[in-house]
Specification:
By secondary structure, the chain is an all-alpha fold. The chain has two domains: about 90 residues, RNA polymerase sigma factor, region 2, helix turn helix motif (Rna Polymerase Sigma Factor, Chain: A), CATH 1.10.1740; about 80 residues, Arc Repressor Mutant, subunit A (Orthogonal Bundle). The chain is built from nine helices and no strands. Helix 2 packs across helix 3, helix 3 packs across helix 4 and helix 6 crosses helix 8. The longest helix is centred in the N-terminal third of the chain and has 20 residues.
Amino acid sequence: MEGEYNDELVVSQITAGQKNLFRLLVTRYQRAVYGMGLSFFRNAEDASDFSQEVFLKVYRSLSRFEGRSRFSTWLYKIAYNTAVNGVNRRKEFHSLAEEEFEPGDGDTPERQAIRAAVREAVLASLGELPERYRVCIDMFFFYNCSYREIQEITGFPVNTVKSHVFRAKKLLREKLKGIEDAR
């Protein structure tokens, strides 16, 4: 039943009185919102609190969703603004790339070691990027947001978003060149 309804249809049904359908939106987006919380707050408890706060704000604001953008973009903008407001007190952002990933079934110990070394190098390189670059590249690669969606979410002009993603990729490429050469 979950996949049968697109987000806009679900939103219209919720605002028409079928409040129980909000759980569909939570189910669809809880992992992404929680992941954003982990990126900003670095611990499970704060990420969980953040997720609850975001979905409460989304629920209360649902009648203001006008459909000018995708629902996910609107939701991520609320989540991003909530996170930025919360993190301004802490001044830290961490990429979703920092999440642990389980090794694949066919991974040999050698492949796992190589993957771990590459992951550590990527994390170190991401950590050296300016925060505005990390935020844009994170949304671009881990949330599959378009430049325009990142603009809507962050408030950065679209050309600035493009520039941040381009510069971040260039800096990462330069920082990781040694790993590429070693392979």
